[in-house]
Structures are given as structure tokens and as C-alpha cells.
Amino acid sequence: MDRGAPSAPAPRPDRPSRPTAKGSNRREELLDVTERVLVERGNAELSLRTVAAEAGVRLGHLQHYFRTRADLVQAVLARVLARSLREVADVTASAGGAVEPVVRSLLAQQEDDRLVRLFTEIWALAAHDGSVAAEVRAFYRDYTGHVAEFVRSRDPGLPPHLCRARAETFVMLIEGASLFRSGVAAEASAATDAELTALAAALLGGGPLTGP
Q1: Nearest 5 degrees, angle CA 92-CA 165-CA 194?
Q2: CA-CA distance, 39 to 73, in Å (whole number)?
Q3: How far is 111 from 174, CA to CA, in rounded Å?
């Protein structure tokens, strides 16, 4: 046996390589393009080839980051929903218990035509894809949770199930309003906005609720 020969190094288990800063930035750029395709061309036109062409890269380059269309959809969905949830959390946390700033901030988001069209496409995806639907349900569950905490802060004596019920009704009202205020289902009007704001504020604890 030749003791002078160095022994071969023991094989090390494979470890997933950490993304570099450049790789992370490239991934975000590709997701930016994907969002743009969803907004401008719709879900029906969303494919790996379309995104690669819009980004000016080879298909193989795109698949280095997102192997399938499903991977791409999940990634852009996670990013969009996380961003929106941060905005909801920031709005409710920074309002200092005041109702009007919360209502105004959430309604102001609906004036962003790009955001409304993006969520319209996400809702359409959720109607036909169970994994997307699960992500969307999780988003609205967390969204409602932030609003319920805000309602509880306004009225600590309100039972938890009523805080949740008011929060869910508020979210339904605000999200449904986007279809009308954005011009998708109708045209926005000052009178309707005034009624919407008053009802939304009442649900958050800014006024009396009428009815049984």
C-alpha cells in the first residue's frame, strides 16, 4: 500500500446552491414581465414562450428559474399576494385606530387600473386551478385577519366571531366594489362612493350598523 498517495476526499451530499444576488434580481425581473403579460394580455396568453419573448431571453434561460408554467404562476401569485398583504397590514397598523384612513387607502388601491386587472386575472386563475385557489383563500384569510384585529381594537367588547364576521363583510364589500369602481362592471360615481365609504366605515366601527 502506498502511504504517500493522498486519499480521495469523501463525497459530500449535494446541497442546493444559494441564489446569487444577480440571480435573485434576474428572477424578479422575469416576474415583473410575467405580471405585465397577465395585465396586458391576460391569463390565456400567459405561457413560458410568451414571457421569454417579452423578456428578450431564450426559453431555456427562463426555465432555469421556472421549469413549468405552473411554477411561474405560483411564483408570481405568491409575490403579488404577499405584496398586497403587506400593504393591508401597513394600512391597518398605521391608522392609529382611525377608520377613515383605512377605508380611503384600500379604496385608493382600486384606482390603480393595473392592480385591478391583475387581481381580475388572479381570480380567473383561481376558478380553474386548485393550487391557485388555495393561495388566494390563504391571502383573503390573512387579509380578513388583519381587518378583524382592527375591528377588535375599535371595539374590544365585540365577540371574536362578530369581529370576524364584520371583517369578512368589509373585505367582500371592498373587493366586490373594485369591479364597479374600476369600470369593469359599471362606472364609479361620487354618490355611490359616499355610500360605500359610509357603510365600510360602519363595519370597521366608525358608525352604527342598521338592520336586525
Answers
A1: 60
A2: 13
A3: 12
CATH topology of domain 20-67: Arc Repressor Mutant, subunit A (1.10.10)
Which of 84, 98, 95 minimizes the C-alpha distance to 35? 84
Dihedral over Cα of 43, 179, 188, 91: its sign: negative
Q: What is the mean pLDDT of each run of 10 residues along the chain (212 residues)?
A: 47 52 88 96 94 96 96 95 93 88 89 89 93 95 95 93 95 90 76 91 73 43
Residue 189 backbone zone (phi > 0: left; psi -120 to 50: alpha; other: beta):
beta
Q: How far is CA 193 from the centre of its chain?
A: 24
The CATH topology of domain 73-204 is: Tetracycline Repressor; domain 2 (1.10.357)
Q: Report how far residue 206's alpha carbon sits from residue 32's, in angstroms, rounded to the nearest whole number.
A: 38
